[in-house]
Amino acid sequence: MTERRRITPVILSGGSGTRLWPLSRTSTPKQFLSLTAESTMFQLTVDRARDPARFDPPIVVSNTAHADLIEDQLKKAGIEGGQLILEPMGRNTAPAIALAALAVDPETILLVMPSDHVIANVAAFRDAVERATPLVERGWLATFGITPSAPETGYGYIQRSTAIAPGVHRVTRFVEKPDLATATDYLAQGDYSWNGGIFLFTAGTYLDALREFQPEMVEAVKRSMDASYVDGARTYPDTAAFAASPSDSIDYAVMEKAAKVAVVPVDMGWSDVGSWDALHALATHDALGNAFQGEVHAIDTRNCLVRSDGPMVATIGVSNLIVIATDDAVLIMPRGESQSVKKVIDKLKGISHATLDLFSRRTVGR
Amino acid sequence: MTERRRITPVILSGGSGTRLWPLSRTSTPKQFLSLTAESTMFQLTVDRARDPARFDPPIVVSNTAHADLIEDQLKKAGIEGGQLILEPMGRNTAPAIALAALAVDPETILLVMPSDHVIANVAAFRDAVERATPLVERGWLATFGITPSAPETGYGYIQRSTAIAPGVHRVTRFVEKPDLATATDYLAQGDYSWNGGIFLFTAGTYLDALREFQPEMVEAVKRSMDASYVDGARTYPDTAAFAASPSDSIDYAVMEKAAKVAVVPVDMGWSDVGSWDALHALATHDALGNAFQGEVHAIDTRNCLVRSDGPMVATIGVSNLIVIATDDAVLIMPRGESQSVKKVIDKLKGISHATLDLFSRRTVGR
Q1: Chain-chain contact of A22 with B318 (C-beta, under 8 angstroms)
Q2: B-chain residues near A297 (CB < 8 A)
Q3: Which tens digit of pLDDT belongs to each residue from B224-265?
Q4: Hey, what's the torsion of the CAs at B263, B266, B268, B272, to 10 degrees?
Q5: What pLDDT, on the 0 to 100 scale, is given for residue A365?
Q6: Which among B311, B329, B340 has CB closest to A312?
Q7: Cα separation, A39 vs B164, whole angstroms
């Protein structure tokens, strides 16, 4: 086996996570919650790319407000040598990744991962990363295409064409969130994957592509990093310079435009845990189809997701409900409608209330 | 109009109120909650017998644990001169009422009232009291028969026979909580009322009846009162003597056995608010049939009772639910099943938990 270049994980810790209100808040977004395990989503992300034989310590790109929280999470995960790059404001994923790419040498392979997704089959994920690596070393931009399990309309899709290496395909096109009929067609065609927002490329390849398609962005981010304030493991890019960067996602800015873009289809038990319904689907159920977390006393209760991080919750004779309780807010709605959480958020937007705690600061979003 | 004897209200402040858990607790039973109005049930009870031209200040018979709470409630209600008789333990209603009867002279008319019922039409209630008074002055024991609005199986019933005065009937019999078919028959017959646990008699008549049917009880209670410790408005009957009293309800001990027992049928908007369903029925509803109290944000919500005395509650797309939230416990169940609260209580009995707070001390029960 030839000597392989080591990989630096780049963890994007952004997103306001309104869909998991009232548990997720601006102060504690989704990645810092223990949703599918005792570990937080952030810790699970760290854990899946921590093999010291293969990975260097991660670079975390985050909102400044979460710096302490992230250092605490890294410490709890036993990670030493991790770096934090603290964005002065959100400019979407393309500039966020550029910050990390400019912090390493151009040959470094970056594994870019959102911090708030779950991957049940880490071995499959790691295997997909290994399949992509030889192409990435030859200047390809790789993305991972999640094998779709349902015609989801909440995700972007990636269509693949011919294989260019074992298990790695050239990308035909990226497509936006489709309607249900279109998504159903995609599944029937069999050559579409979900776009999970996970990428592998060298820092140099990414920055070269950015220079080609978004020269202003790469210039602004470089000026910001050149003028950054460094405090131990924390890097604070210059605010004015970063503010001058266009805001764009990596998909729009680079992946949809570049020539050498590969997709690695992978079935790895992925979920973005994007709703309470998604969490119910992922959770371990009792014999009556319930998933409980926290102090829950259920009687004659079926197919419910009941979670409390605060008051004890007692349910009697209910079914197909989602109940999420915290010390200051309780949410109750039927299963299958958890996308409606945004209706509550919209209603509360007009009300200044601590239970919202969502809009004080926008964090980087995908 | 002849000079009428004044009436002393006797307010029985007992009952553990488990059916309104998690709002009612041992430390704050139902009578101290604001359920149907801004005033508590206790204050509403005080208010309906406070005409200074007709009523003397009340005697409250209560658990010692609630002495401070009751004095505070009387103060808030603007009552001066009220007396508290603080039972060392619960012995049901017959001894509780005997304590009050022994605290006044035998000619005093006592209006005995539970502290946790609601009466919408106080004028009808006061009118019924006036109808009963002349018979009571002649040695009758009077009870008030609530005009039944449904074949309830949770109440005792009183069958009446001939009128012995305008609007006052001799009692044929008291009957236990019937099954639904029997209750339906009672309503069809038209000569049955609900037993609301409200009584009018002189102290002497009551004690004479007790001496006849429960001589041990009246002796024990008298010894207890003779040896009581008095501290201002508070009377603490002697513990050992009171403990020696048999435990029995006034219905069993006296009303079902005495000869001169009258019932005053009255339609006065009475409810014992004995369940969350009962509270939903009594509450003011919005156009979608909901009754909300506290900070509730409802979207697409119909025919629900949602009350919070703690966290904000958000509901989306639910109907016919009861949701009761406090700082440490949240209850969720369908409307129509609120009698099932006892299932939660039974489940929690085995668990030492502050949210139960129900069994630290038994209070007097009806």
Answers
A1: no
A2: 344, 347-348
A3: 999 999 999 999 999 999 999 999 999 999 999 999 999 999
A4: 40
A5: 30
A6: B329
A7: 77
How confident is the model at residue B359, as a pLDDT? 39
The CA distance from A147 to A347, in Å, is 36
Query: Residue A366 above 50 pLDDT?
Result: no
Residue A128's closest CA among A266, A4, A2, A1? A266
Q: Would you list the DSSP string of B126-188?
A: HHHHHHHHHHHHTT-EEEEEEPPSS--SSS-EEEEEEEEETTEEEEEEEEPPP-HHHHHHHHH
Phi-psi region of B300 (alpha: psi -120 to 50; beta: other; left: phi over 0): left
Q: For residue B326, which residues of chain A lie inside 8 Å, CB to CB?
A: 311
Report chain A residues whose CB lies below 8 A from the CB of B318. 321, 332-334
Q: Do B347 and A297 touch (CB under 8 A)?
A: yes
ipTM of predicted assembly, 2 dp: 0.84
- Which of B314, B318, B347 is the closest to A329 by Cβ? B314
Place of tokens 């601006």: A26
Strand arrangement of the beta sheet that strand A312-316 belongs to: A296-299, A312-316, B329-334, B321-325, B305-308, B291-293
Contact call for residues B31 and B286 (beta carbons, < 8 A): no
Alpha helix positions (H), chain B: 41-47, 67-76, 93-101, 122-137, 180-189, 203-213, 215-226, 239-243, 250, 276-282, 341-349
